[in-house]
Amino acid sequence: MSQASQRGQKYENLIAAARDGTPAVTIVAHPCDDSSLRGAIAAADEGLIEPVLVGPEAKIRGVADEHGIDITGRRIIDAPHSHAAAASAVTLIREGKGELLMKGSLHTDELMQEVASAATGLRTERRISHVFVMDVPGHPETLFITDAAVNIFPDLDDKRDIIQNAIDLWTGIGMGTPHVAILSAVETVTKKIPSTIDAAALCKMAERGQITGGLLEGPLAFDNAIDPEAARIKGIPGPVAGHGQILVVPDLEAGNMLAKNLIFLSHADAAGIVLGARVPIILTSRADTVRTRLASCAVAALYANARRQSAAVTA
Question: Given pLDDT bands bounded at 50, 70 and 90, which one contains residue 173?
Fold first, then answer.
C-alpha cells in the first residue's frame, strides 16, 4: 500500500469501530460557523454522536441555510452568545444530559474557562490534559502526543495525571496495553535536563503502581522512542524503546512543535481530545479536515461507550 493510500487508514479504522457503538449524546457549544456545524452534523450522519446544538438559534439556522447543512430534527438550545453557550453546555453536562462536550466556533479558552471553574465546571480529581491522536503517513501505528495544548509547564504530579489520562483513553478505545515513551532530549538521566529526572521518577511511579495500565520507559529521545533501529544502536532494551505509542512531552512548547512538525512536514492528521474532566471534550480547529473532525468524534464516542459499559458493570 502506498503512503498516499495509507494516509487516513488509521482514522478510518477508528471511525468504523465507533459506528458499531451507540451514538454518544454530545453537547456542541456554539456551532456558529460552517466548519464547526458541518463537523458535528457529519459525525451525526456517520452514527458517531447525537448532537445537541447550543448557541444563538437564529445564527445556527442561518449558517445551516447558507452552507446547505441539513439540521432537520436536530435539537437546538438557544443561548444569546458564545459565553452563554459555553456556560449552558457545561451545565447540561453537569446535569447528566450529555456524554461528550464538543467545541464549536468559540475560542478554546472561553470553553475551557467554563470547564475548569471550581464552582460550576467539570473538574475531577485528575489534572485536565489534551491528547493529539496522530495519523502519520508511513508510520505503522497511531500515535498519541500529550500534552501539547493545555498544560504549559507540568510538574511531576501533573505528568502522572497526563500519562494516566492518555493510558485510560488508549485502553478505553480498545487499543490494548500502550507503550508509553517519556520524551526528553537525551535517553540518559542528568540533572542538567530536569525532564530526564521527571521521566525516571515517572517510570518508578509506574513500578510502584502509581501509574497503571501501560508500559513506561524514559527518558527517551524522539528517535529511539519511535524507531527500533535507533533504539538498537543506542543499546536501549525493553518493549517500549523504538515502539512508543503514547509520546509524553516535557512541556507544551515541545509538544506543540512536535505535533505541528508532524502535521506540516509529514502531512499527519491530528485529532484532538481533552481528558480528565467529567466527560471527554472534543476540541477541533478551523483548519481540521472533515476526516480529522470525524476521528476526534470517533475517539471520544468509543471512549464514551467504554465508560458507559464500565458504569453499567459497576452499577
Answer: very high
CB proximity list for 282: less than 8 A, separation 6 or greater: 26, 100, 101, 102, 103, 272, 273, 274, 296, 297, 300
* Confidence (pLDDT) at 7: 59
Q: Which three cell numbers stand for residue 96?
A: 447528566
Phi, psi of 229 (to 5 degrees): -70, -40
The whole-angstrom separation of Cα 177 and Cα 184 is 22
pTM of the model: 0.93
CA angle 235, 198, 225 (to 5 degrees): 35
| Enclosing H/E stretch for 247 | strand 246-248
Residues 87/115, Cβ–Cβ less than 8 Å: no
Cβ-based burial of 70 (10 A; exposed 0-12, middle 13-18, buried ≥19) = exposed
Name the band, by pLDDT with cuts 50, 70 and 90, for residue 290.
confident
